[in-house]
Amino acid sequence: MRKIISFMHISLDGFVAGLNGEMDWIRVDEEIFDYVGKRISRGDTALYGRVTFEMMENYWPSAGDKPDASRHDIEHSKWYNQVHKVVLSKTMTGAGLSNTEVISDNLADRIHEIKQRPGNEILLFGSPSATHSLIQLNLVDGYWLFVNPVILGRGIPLFAGVKDTVKLSLLDTRQFACGVTELNYMVDR
Asked: So what CATH class is 4-187?
């Protein structure tokens, strides 16, 4: 069975965004872009909440075509256009969206069905609300966290609504020159 891995930048105190969704505190550089690009290139399914999907859809389909596109933009745009996208939304329809599936009801059943399909891991990008819903249904299998050297004090927490203890096993870690630390955990089942 395929696994859902939550890919998230997080502050040292556990927030994924400021109170108003701010993410200007996130540190990224070419070293992180290269590292993340290699890992996600193996993925064939990207999972998003509606808000994150709309941000991605407004940028990535044509980002690699711009005259000043960086190597990262070209590579990620190519990947984004090829990957199967799954969007959790109660308001969107999938009409007119290429290679995109929208889940608006029966979340647990639909996600279990997707996890049964052949393929690689399913990467859940950002999307705090979608992540919270999947955590509450015990559907997240791992956490690929990029801990940024900042304490926000308040904001949108990653682990909102967790009702029971979730034990994790650390698979690996990596320190980046910009001060970000990657932590890669799997849920113990």
From this structure: alpha beta
